[in-house]
Amino acid sequence: MLPLPSEEEGAFIFRFPGGEKMDFLTQFFQVIANMSAASLAQHIVNGISLGSLYALIAIGYTMVYGILLMINFAHADIVMMACYFAFFGITVFHIPWYITFVGVIVATAALGVVIERTAYRPLRDAPKNSVLISAIGASFLLENLANYLFSGRPLRFPDIPLLSQTITVGSVQIQAICLVIPVITFISLLVLLHIVNHTKTGMAMRAVSKDYEIARVMGVNIDRVISITFIIGSSLAAIGAFMWGVRYPGITPLLGVMPGLKCFIAAVIGGIGNIKGAVIGGFILGLGEVLIVAFFPQLSGYRDAFAFIVLIIILFYKPTGLLGEKTTEKV
Amino acid sequence: MAKTQTVLQTDSMTMRFGGVTAVFQLNLDIREHQIVALIGPNGAGKTTAFNMITGVYTPTEGDVIYTAPGEEPVKITGKLPSDIAKMGIARTFQNIRLFKDLSVYENVMIAKHLHLKSNFLSATLHLPWYNKEQRQMEADVEKLLRSVDLWELRDEKASSLPYGKQRRLEIVRALATNPKILLLDEPAAGMNPKETEELTEFIRQIRDEYNLTIFMIEHHMDLVMEISDWIYVLDFGMLIAEGTPVDIQNNSRVIEAYLGVDEDAES
Amino acid sequence: MSKRNMILTVVGIIVLFAGACYAQFELDSYLRRIINLCLIYAIIGLSMNLTNGFAGQFSLGQAGFMALGAYVVGVFTVPVELRSNVFYAVPMNPLIADIQLPLWLALIFGGLLAALVAFLIGTPVLRLRGDYLAIATLGFSEIIRIVITNAQSFTNGALGIKDIPTINDVRYIFLATAFVFIFVTCLVNSSYGRAFKAIREDEIAAEAMGVGLFHHKCMAFMLSAFFAGIGGGLYATLLGTVDPKNFLFTLTYNFLLIIVLGGMGSITGSMLGSIIVTAGLEFLRVFDEPLEIFGTTIPLFRPGFRMVIFSLLLMVCVLFWRKGIMGTEEFTWNKFVAFCKNPFKYFMRKGARNNG
Predict the structure, then answer these.
(1) In chain A, N or C terminus with fewer CB closer than 10 Å?
(2) Same domain, B81 and B103
């Protein structure tokens, strides 16, 4: 299971709302009173780095949905496989971490393309539900493969001292990786936006996501565009996975599931198909999750529910997402 | 022509998609028992108008007002398509939307569902009052299918029917909802002159037999001119003319709009 | 249904029930357990088929609804005197500590609770077009599990509930399964079943013909959850214990395989799919053990291989055999009789119909 404090921590006592409302509020005020600027800053940094990780993974979901109108369920499991690849590169084969980093990106991108070719491409003309089932099947297969090949025992992501060392800024203690993650996310986002907005390939990608049929008729090589989309999405996922592993070192076959769900929700919140939206959605969920647990520690068992509550709210008030555009179906 | 009751009225109905105005301040007035045609070049906004009337799109501005014969006018702007169908407005689709994998029989039976009063429990347990409703539905469907020579084909999959029969099935399915007004979207599309003639007769027949008002989008001018009591002409989303077939045939703006686009000249 | 078919159906059920009696008295408890599990999985597979196959709404929430049903049964059927033993870490919440229900009532309450939760999830999500239902139901399935894990005074949290009175009686479970299957068959053959199929075929046309989309989608979703809850409750009585870890979302994938294999949109298919998957899950266990041929251990066979094969099976099915065994067709007495009269002619006609 995830090393995140979902099930393993204490505070399981279910507080019955009616009878102990006062207690809930008093607890809240106590938390605020005891929170120093330093610990608040710590929480915000944690939230931003979690948000950045979510953003990186959410981009993969939103790009694939924008072009193929399908939820790539296997995306979350690609993150998981990337962690395993990193583990094998560094811990088992003793390759230096910076080389493994590049290798993991390449391997993960390749995996993404393989999945697209075998599981999604043959079903491009099939009814929508079929490709959804195929995505689930691919996800299921990856999870079971990981369980079979690497056993279900949690493995420990290799420690990279440069990134996991603690840095002191003022009175705040932060892991170096927490500062690295937003920076890398920002750089990746800039590179990606440049590709999408200023290159011919990017223009092809935007054309396909706007109107698949017309783009094909106009001579855009659909297969190539889709492959590139998967390469980009998987590479970003690999980068995210690597940093995720440094931050949360427990690797299990189901590691990607809950973050995957949240990242898709992040993409929906920001407007499915919209890259900037996915990033914004990622930050909203990351920051929100961390801050809620910071201010209401008794809710820490329910931290995963936060994303779904935000999803429901968005679906009620702005179903197309924050940056999404209303598309009308031709009848 | 005696003054007849308005069944369907649109009041400055407008549809904007982002920066594109598909339909602009359309005013329609469709009278009881009339056959009214909506014509215009491709892309003029005709199907969009249909979609606004039937609730698939919510008009950006303006209203749609429906008056069932013998009842008060009701604003149906923005209502759900299923509610609008229940009130008595039925339609067919430009690209034929039959339930492909279901049989001919099931396609028409489904159109009877909206008037079902029994709840799902009564239906599942086949309680007496549900069985009574079911038998009535079956009788109605048989009558409808026999009237268009589709009864023998009732167990065939809808997608296996030839094109002409599919179009007929779609019309009959819409009729099964017991509508007061029937909206037909290009019912003669793809038909040869003989089939078009049969369709013309058929439309007149169902209008008389079922006491309907008919509002249709059509490109086949012989059908339109032959059968319509009133014609509305749309171009670039705006109403450019309305009147009797004679008026429209001699209207210069209409001729201009249609220059080179008259499908009838090609077929 | 013609008189002949009705008689055949009743006779068929009696024959099957006799089979259940035979199984109950002659077979050993291991086989009985597998048969019971197969029947329970058939119920839940059918419930999933109701939304996914018949109404065309892609839901992945069966594990969560099962969990709700299982926990209602778990919480309310453990005898009161044994409860303090089970809830040893955190005492059971006084509101429910003394309520003990007979199994049939707990099953129904479990189903109703699941249906209620389905309503709450469905109300925001079913109004929208799109794939959001899949993600939302998957997520809520996990959330239900999280809530169960945290609400320790109600559910004993991660410790799970044991000492649930077990029923390993094939006849009881057969009757429950027969009831569910007959109910769903009658529903599907009624006007409402046709409405569901219309929504699956073409939502826009269905709506234009007066079928209220949200109303009917919600109905299918709630019914599906109800039966999944009942299945979950029966599952709890089969195992005798419940644990949040039993109801991971990956459990839902088993049911997905059942309906894809059997045919999405076929009631008969759900039963066939369940037989194959349950039997397979059991008898393929051998793949998880090291296999020795001529003294050498083949490294392929170790724990986890069985599930790899199952996921491959799901992929192969959806890629090459989308219709599954039955497609959207059912076993009918008419077809059976035609087959019996002249098997060769039956297949020739079937081939002609498929190619025509």
Answers:
(1) N
(2) no
> Both B121 and B84 in a single domain?
no
Q: Domain range spanning residue B137?
A: 99-175
* B17·A328 Cβ contact <8 A: yes
Q: Are A251 and A83 in contact (CB under 8 A)?
A: yes
For CA atoms C233, C239, C244, C250, give the dihedral sign: negative
Structure pTM?
Answer: 0.89
Which residues 6+ apart lie within 8 Å of C212 measured at CB? B80, B82, B83
Residues 6+ away with beta carbon under 8 Å from C130:
none
Question: ipTM of the predicted structure?
Answer: 0.91
**A interface residues, B as partner, C-beta within 8 Å:** 325-326, 328, 331
**Do residue B188 and residue B165 come from a single domain?**
no
The answer on B264 and B207 residing in a single domain is yes
Do C149 and A301 make contact, defined as CB atoms within 8 angstroms?
yes
Max Cα distance, chain A (Å): 67
Q: What is the number of structural domains in chain A? A: 1
- Separation CA A104–CA A101 (nearest Å): 5
Domain extent at residue A250 = 51-263
In a shared domain, residues B164 and B186: no
Q: Where are the domains of chain C?
A: 3-248
Interface probe, candidates C181, C182, C186, C190, chain B, greatest B C-beta count within 10 A: C190
Q: For residues B226 and B240, is the Cβ–Cβ distance under 8 A?
A: no
Each residue's pLDDT expressed in tens, for chain A with a length of 331 residues: 333 333 333 333 344 443 344 566 777 777 777 777 778 888 898 899 999 999 999 999 999 998 888 899 999 999 999 999 999 888 888 888 888 999 999 999 999 999 999 999 999 888 888 888 999 999 999 999 999 888 888 888 888 877 778 888 777 778 888 888 899 999 998 999 999 889 988 888 888 888 888 888 888 888 889 999 999 999 999 999 998 998 888 899 988 888 999 999 999 999 988 899 999 999 999 999 999 888 888 888 788 888 988 988 888 888 888 888 766 666 6
Domain CATH code at residue B203 = 3.40.50.300
Say yes or no: B188 and B161 in one domain.
Answer: no
Task: Give the closest of A71, A311, A329 to C131, CB-based.
Answer: A71
Q: Please report all neighbours of A, defined by 3+ CB atom pairs within 8 A.
A: B, C
Q: Say if residue B202 is exposed, middle or buried (CB neighbours under 10 Å; 0-12, 13-18, 19+).
A: middle
**C-alpha span between A49 and A47 (Å, rounded):** 5
CB atoms within 10 A of CB B10: 23
Shared domain check, B9 and B82: yes
Q: Does any domain span residue B226?
A: yes
Query: In this complex, do B51 and A325 lie within 8 Å of one another by their Cβ atoms?
Result: no
CATH number of C3-248: 1.10.3470
Q: Domain check: are B198 and B186 in the same one?
A: yes
